[in-house]
Amino acid sequence: MKPNLPSRQSLRLKDYDYSLPGLYFITICSDRRIPLFGQIADDQMSLNGAGEMIAKRWMELPLRYPKIELHEFIVMPNHLHGILQINPMVKIVGASLVGALGISTENSEPPVSTSAPVVTIGQIVGAFKSLTTNDYVQGVRDNGWPKFNKKIWQRNFYEHVIRNEKSYLSIAEYIQTNPQRWLDDIYCVL
After folding, report:
1. SS3 85
2. Which of 48, 160, 181, 189 has the most CB atoms lying inside 10 A of its own CB?
3. CATH code of residue 41
4. Rounded to two decimals, what is the model's pTM?
């Protein structure tokens, strides 16, 4: 017999394929919106060690998923906003370890492929949450970061499919100016 768990309504668009090429606006919140990643002072975001780790892991996502490109993003005290693009036309270049180390490989070209596993926004966000949670646990142990209660991220995340340039520009500005609106931000918890 299964326990009665609260049903959660999906935030995803019904019947939309989240592996399709396009631009996606993503917001990921810390559990209970606890400010773990830094603070806002004088309308500027000041990342702490955990916030720097979050930003670094976000910027490394294209290494894990070569067919994505990152656009504007910001780590706030208790959430991350970012624009992520799935681009199937990105060429994936395989590099040998020798080439990656900067050792000359004259007369040899790395293999080029346009095939890569299909990935969804949910898989990307899931991997990001997993990687950052593991890093955060280590930061608590090694660097004295604030302890947390079982998880650092909320279960779900917000996404919005960006359908045109006007929407993209509006969202990009929203991300860039987010610290200036912190006290009015729906994610702000004081």
Report:
1. strand
2. 48
3. 3.30.70.1290
4. 0.78
